[in-house]
Structure formats: C-alpha cells, structure tokens
Amino acid sequence: MTGQAANGAWPSASPPAAERLLHWQLSGVAELPAMRAQVRRAMGPSIDPDALDQLILALDEMASNALRHGGGGRVEASVRSTDTGYLIEVSDAAAARPPMPAVDRDPSEGGLGLYLIARMALRHGWYASARAKHVWALLPRS
C-alpha cells in the first residue's frame, strides 16, 4: 500500500505545521457521532463534499482505533488546516505501540481502516511523546 513501511506499520514522522480548527477530548466510542456531527456543522459549508466525507471517515477511524486499542485513558483528536489540506491528529496512551494495519485478515473482519486512510492521505505518520502516541494524516482539500 502507498506510504507504508515494509513491516506494515505507519512511518515514524512528525506532522506538518497546521492551524487548529477543531479539538476533542474523548473517553468512549459513544462520543464519535457528536464529533462527526460537529465536523459537518463547522466545516460543511466551506469544504468540498467529497473531501468532507473523507475527512470524517479518517477522523472517525483514527479516533475509534485510539479508543479501542490505545491503552485506555484520554484520547485527543483534532482537525487542523494547512496550505494543502486538512491534518487529522489523534493521540492515545499507547506511546510504545505504533499504528499497525491488519495483516492477512479477511476484509469482512475489519481492520482495514488504516490502509484506507493511507491511500486517501497526501502524507501520514506517527510519533511518540513522553506520555502519548500521536497518529496523523494529511488529507487533500479536494
């Protein structure tokens, strides 16, 4: 797949500089519908509809992965703006565990969201801070 390291992990890289547009602190997947609705309300009038759908899909996938597999604790998610696109960044408590797309799994069992995001993204990656893993994807404006 495009942009992936040979072992299936996302590349270790820092995201581009970007201006914060939206930010959430999440504690459970039940909060994801409200997050998606807020993105539609806040960004819908000013963004290409297809780009908006991709942005919401990637944000939802990354946030749900962090909530389900991120080691518990607080998950933070944000949408930022760059000159070329929209930067999605999600952090969780699993600082030592890189994002790993599913390998050798039947597509009907799920786990293919990271592949999809990597294909949609201009760039993607992850990095660790002292207490968190940060996973990011830069999606095009249109």
TrEMBL record:
Lineage top rank: taxon: Bacteria
A Pfam short name: HATPase_c_2
Transmembrane residue ranges: none
The entry's keywords: ATP-binding, Kinase, Nucleotide-binding, Serine/threonine-protein kinase, Transferase
InterPro entries the record matches: Anti-sigma-factor_SerPK, HATPase_C_sf, HATPase_dom
GO molecular function, one term: ATP binding
Domain Histidine kinase/HSP90-like ATPase per the UniProt entry, residue ranges: 30-124
Name of the protein described by the UniProt record: ATP-binding protein
Organism: Blastococcus goldschmidtiae
